[in-house]
Write a structure and sequence with these properties.
heterodimer; A: about 110 residues; mainly beta; four-stranded antiparallel beta sheet; 12 strands; B: about 120 residues
């Protein structure tokens, strides 16, 4: 069965500092990988996804993530955090192919201080 | 891009009543939609997979008679919480896959259900 681990429950960074959110997955082959962001009381917004090809994926809002097969990781990064980035971030894994269910990690809450 | 509309965004109902939540794909056809539930400060848990024209597939532990799912068309899936109780209070989110965007998952904005 597929699973996702986000080891950091809560992260605080200063505005303008760099950010890395960790994500480790468990799956027998190369899965589909996703990062979503959720603002309080809101739904989920897709930041980026990896299906195949280039292991460095660019997303919206200046985010990127790198798929590392050897480490079973898909960490999310941003070079300079803005106060509006404060939210909850979810990593997710899905089986390849269409219409497969997605398993979410427990989320990392990002706090940005001035 | 693909848009999924979920309605209502917030609903308060009395114990024992039923509540229907709608999930619509606005600019694409979704043969499969997914319903998730999110408890406060927790992650999303898949409740069921909704398939157009057939019965939904429920995850283990989810009561199919309590959470009725109907996917009558390629753009609409509904989740009905029957005989709601306070413990059903939660955040419910639907998602759909857009085949034309390489199976990217698009999520609705969610429904905050409060049962009093």
């Amino acid at each position: 069965a597929q699973s996702v681990t986000q080891p950091d429950i809560h992260i605080t960074v200063s505005e303008g500092a760099s950010l890395e959110l960790r994500c480790n997955y468990s799956y027998g082959a190369t899965p589909y990988l996703f990062w979503y962001v959720q603002s309080p009381g809101q739904g989920l917004q897709l930041l980026l996804k990896y299906f195949s090809g280039d292991t460095l994926v660019q997303g919206i809002k200046g985010f990127e993530a790198e798929f590392k097969r050897s480490q079973s990781s898909f960490n999310l990064r941003k070079p300079s955090v803005h106060w509006s980035d404060a939210a909850e971030y979810f990593c997710a894994v899905g089986a390849p192919g269409g219409y497969q269910k997605v398993t979410f990690g427990t989320g990392t809450k990002l706090q940005v201080i001035p | 891009g693909a848009v999924v509309s979920q309605h209502p965004s917030r609903v308060i109902c009395k114990s024992g009543t039923s509540v229907k939540i709608e999930c619509r794909s606005l600019d694409f056809q979704a043969t499969t939609m997914f319903w998730y539930r999110q408890f406060p400060k927790q992650s999303l848990m898949l409740m069921a997979t909704s398939n157009e024209g057939s019965k939904a597939t429920y995850e283990q532990g989810v009561e199919k008679d309590k959470f009725l799912i109907n996917h009558a068309s390629l753009t609409l899936s509904t989740l009905t919480v029957t005989s709601a109780h306070p413990e059903d209070s939660s955040f419910y989110i639907c998602s759909a896959q857009d085949r034309t965007s390489n199976y990217g998952y698009t999520f609705g904005s969610g429904t905050r259900l409060t049962v009093v």
